[in-house]
## 1
Amino acid sequence: MTTQALGADKKARSARWALRRRFAAWAPVAVLALLCVIIALINPNFLSAGNFVRIAQAAMIPLVLGLGATFVILMGSIDLSVEGVLSLSAVILSLLVLNGANSNDFGPLAILPVLLVGAAVGFVNGVVHVGLKTPSFMTTLGTWFIGVGVANALLGGTAVRINDPFIRGLAIERFLGLPWGVWLALACLAVAFVIQNNTRLGRYVYALGGGEELAALSGIPVARVRVLTFTLAGVFYAIGGILAAAQLGLGNSLIGNGRLFSTITAVVVGGTALSGGEGSVLQTLVGVLIVAVLNNGMVLADVPPSYQIGVQGLMIIAAVALSIDRNVMRIVK
Amino acid sequence: MRHKLTVNPLALNLRRRDLLKGAGALGVAAALPAVISRPARAAGQPTLVNSIRSLSNPYHATWNKGGAAFAKSVGADYVTLVTEGNSEKGIADIKAILAKTGGNCCINVDPNDSPDARPIVEACKAAGAYVVTQWNKPADLHPWDFNPNYVAHISFSGVPYGKAMAETLFKAMGGKGGVVALGGIESNVPAIERKKGLDQALAANPNVKLLDYQVANWDANTALEKTNAWLTKFGDQIGGIWAANDDMALAAVEALRAGGSAGKVPVTGIDGIKLAVESILKKEMVGTVAWDPYWQGGMGLSIAYHAKTGGFDPTTQPKDHREFYGKGVIITADNAQAFYDSNIKAEPKIDWNDIWGRVNGQIRY
């Protein structure tokens, strides 16, 4: 074979590879579209405007949580503190705004301390993880329990009703047909998109996920990026806590139950790799929509309750299997 | 030139081991001791002991308050044992208190799991202490086989209350229309019993149609999702929502509120938590059932105490006093305000000497 032929062969192979990678990135979108078509065929109500709003409502909290988790997962770490931060934020918010348990009435001002608490927990995650070199898995497992524990200690197992019209308005009042909470979640998506693409932090996160040794050698402040990313994630979880409290109209330490797995599922189903460096916040949006549409669709399509969890499991495997690029993977654990 | 690298090794290849460590950490946390006791002992009086799961849920926290109130009413020492969901810890703590008091105690226990009841009862019999069990015990373990120490077992049947709530709901709907129902975890006995009650009420009311039944795992978030999907699927056909507990019922109310129909579609729950009673007062829910853990915590002790101190002889009591269903309190718009004032705003007032007042028939297995 001549060198020219070798070169041509290489070019063709890399073109094929690029095509396959592009397909992998769009696979979740195809899954989402297919899912929508199937459900709409079984039950045309799926396509009604009212249902569109309901899916948006169901997706707003997982989206905000997923945005925070996306950055951490892109970096190659994992964050299990989602439910801890969410419950703690919701409980603190419920105790600061007009509520059924005490005489506080700080209104929208209460959001600021809640965001600070979220940032603080995320900051602790980052500092402990980097400073003590504890794996992110264990560090955030610890803060998860601490968050739920503090929420529990604040309320002693009871629930507090939220009467604040501003907070409740996030779930109830609408603008252009969608609840304000959905707009807030979309604003978070825009902010996350800008952070991902247009800030140094966003680019560094990809660099760390792609190969940390290389990133460190090229002068990226690895420790600072890690701490900042966990802090950012904490803020997103706190916003998720505010939305959850607004949606259920109450705060209690169980409000985060089940949110961790749905968050990580949405991120991974969207095509973001758990190994880091691959994925984006837009893919998380797609992943969140897949999960929300599936949950909504299983009821619409009369899937018996006993089978729903199994269908969900099949969906996860199918979406992930379609979106990973097996060519770049030597070892799978 | 030599560079010194300070790079964290990626945490990825550690994950499986981390998971095991995580499981270990959970185990340690679950085994933390949580015995709360007061050392002083009143002369001659038996020590009164409540053994429950934890103090961080409102149900058992209220149970504990009831126990303390009864102990105060007879001037006896009161001890709370907490299993934290660990059967071995629960049994070991009871054996420790039997040894400490020399058997001079009355124990009211909500066993962590059904099989735990047997070793607990056997240990009490051996030590000469008096014991009442609640909710969990094996079907073939009977108080009359351990006379006189195993005084009674109390439980609550979900069937009549699931049925009562369904009837309350149908009444609010004017006796006809479509209902949707939110159930608890499929394999849970209370979930099965409450649904059975719903089915009985549906069979008796042919004008009411069950549009759909979904399992929402006792969980508010899941209930919200299911209710939202129903609003799409059935829209105005939904005349009422039956939920197997209050958390799910309150979430259904919020789903209705987001669609602008809270208060227009009646909703029922079960458990009688504070927020649900408030919701009935606001006309957004139409019913719930209170199990009254305050009564359970105090009356279980009172029954054992009266048997121990000669108030009655357990061996001559009929079987429906030894193994009985207690009575739940059905709360609707008619009595919600009165219930709220006497049970939630104020400390409940219970006649601890009326020990068979809430007997609601012998337990059937």
## 2
Amino acid sequence: MSAGVLTSTGVVAAGRARRTRRWRLIVTILAIAVVVAFCLSLMVGRTFYGPDEVLRVIAGQKVPGASFTVGVLRLPRAVLAALAGFAFGLAGVTFQTMLRNALAAPDIIGISSGASAGAVFAILVLKVSSAATVSVLAIVTALATAGLIYLLAYKDGVLGTRLILIGIGIGAILKSLVSYLIVRAAAWDLQVAMRWLTGSLNGAAWSRVLPLAVAVAVFVPLLLGQARNLDLLRLGDDAAAALGVRVERTRLVAILGAVALTAFATAATGPIAFVAFLAGPIAARIVGPSGSLMIPAALVGALLVLVSDLIGQFAFDTRYPVGVITGAVGALYLVFLLVRTNRSGGSL
Amino acid sequence: MTTLVAPQRSPGVAVPRRPLPARLAWLGIAVVALVLVATASVAFGSRVVSLHEIVSAFTGAEDGIAQAAVRGRLPRTILAVVVGATLGLVGTVLQAVTRNPLADPQVLGITSGASLFVVTGIAFVGLASPMAYIWVAIAGSALAATFVYAIGSLGRGGPTPLKLALAGAATSAAFNALISAILLPRIEVMDEFRFWEIGGVGGATYDKLALVAPFLVTGALICFLSARGLNALALGDDVAAGLGERVARTRLLAATGAFILCGAATAVAGPIGFVGLMVPHACRLLVGVDHRWLLPCSALAGATLLTAADVVGRLVARPSEVDVGIVTALIGAPFFIVMVRRLRMRSL
């Protein structure tokens, strides 16, 4: 009898070890894919530079031509793409896990629109020109938007469903404000408009990368520290509390971290459509039912933005901003959801 | 897992039937209100015209600047009245057909479908005649609505208001990205589209009005004819079928009417949100839930609301103006939030 129990514990332990190995393998593969995409976006362009030249530029050597093209144009763009994708992916999966709804990403429930509205208001109405000030304003408005949504959703406690719907309502107001400001702007600048409507990496510079890099360094560890608690929240508030999770505290930290990441990333690149929305579900399909989704989703986000930007820049006659490409991917994903019609596993 | 259930005041059951004189009185008041705002719409603008001058413009007694201003504002006023009435009808029918208190052409992403189809038609098929725009917009509305409804029905619990609203928001975001993808290489289409996209009645002409009139009349007739069927649908599919109603046919017919109206209105005035959301709820309080009363009342109230919103938009930003689509979003989204807060949420 006791031998049987022992064996079954052994089986469970072996299964857990196998799943952990599988999870580590997947994360490693995703990380390698991100690095490959990153290097590709440094090498590919109007002029192709080989890995050796790119490496020498990164090492700080002077390479005629490549120093400018790779060092000044491509490197900030690629870093910005990777960081923004990482931030959007992590923020998206945090919201989806916390609200227990695969459609409840920060770009759908109005948080990105808050950041966008703040940035557009700063640029077009307050005539702010420094990227840092614009970022600060975008972050303040995104936090204020999230706070407002949270307050409005509060009625004998906050319910995920009510929070999502109120977020959609607030998002509608902010989006109409953004379009109004842009359409009424004296000089219609397509690049600026596209950046704040769908997200774009054009005009990437180190001054825009820096605030986002700091935010990623601060808030990513904060969120990853809550990964276990967040995964337990998926079981429902009561079950999580019974397992020793401080539910409200976890939720508050998660909201703060995810909103901050969304806000900083939006301030740097605009609301790149659907990255936050797609990263979680894609990661869930790759990783499977066991194992944390946070790191895989963040890597998937980075990969999505890097690859979409490459496609947007070079696959067509027109250079499309990255948000247009990710948006089209999002449309395909919605169709895929329909076609799959997996009723048993449907947890929309 | 939390889900949303229809509110107690769902189309149909809990609201008491209003006495006939009260209903007639409210309809009368709605007519008076409409006449008042229409007069205001003709009178106010960058030049304020007196009542005497308005009358003289119609009788042809005098001919001056004031009379010219009145004649210039007349098509715009008529368009606002007609589109507002249309949106009121569309909202009422959509809320009844989907049994969803949050249904609205913009919330459900239907207007973005119309936009996407029109843009696609202009860019790829060389669509040029306004008549063709209307047909294409109707087709786009119908397809987008079906798409959103299908996505919102995935998973457990069928099409709840939450899932429909999320599916609508996600679909709009995806369609908007596709619209950007089509427009970016075609700067000349884009320049026209960006003004149309916000939704406004400023570009009204008698030609446009004559063009959409047959569509609006047909759509409105279909909606009015299905009023009795919509009353039966409010009881729930099973009860309605038990009472001898052919549920699927009623739903299809009423929805077709709504798509014709929505597509035609969007083709002439651009996407205008939230009128269809607010009006039916207000009218249900005034004349009760019988669609034979509710539909005319919604048409009158929608016309009043949109015309008033247009006047407000012209007054607050003189000598410039705020497009009516922005004004309705600014009034309507808070209304949406109040609605959400009143919905009964049930924890499972």
